[in-house]
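A quick word before the example. In earlier lectures we treated sequence and structure as two separate objects. From today on, think of them as two lines of the same record. Here is DUF3329 domain-containing protein written that way.
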Amino acid sequence: MQLIDPNHPAYRRVWVRALIVGLCLGWAALEFITGDPFWGVLSAGAGVYAFYMLFWTFKPQPPAEAAEAPKPEETDPE
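And the structure line, produced from the sequence above:
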């Protein structure tokens, strides 16, 4: 089951991906500091999963419009 779609256009910018991972791991640190390890582990797991999906396995795809456009030699002259 895939929770994050790395091909979504919102994840193209590096700062967006880094912000998502940073917020998850920062929230985990806050939970551990305040003494709630259960939510800290859940937040850290979300951060690790986001890092895996958005950095480790991230392969940017070209925009769908450019990929689906017909080539000039393939067009029908009529």
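Notice the following. Helices lie at 14-33, 37-56, 64-68. We will return to this example when we discuss secondary structure assignment.
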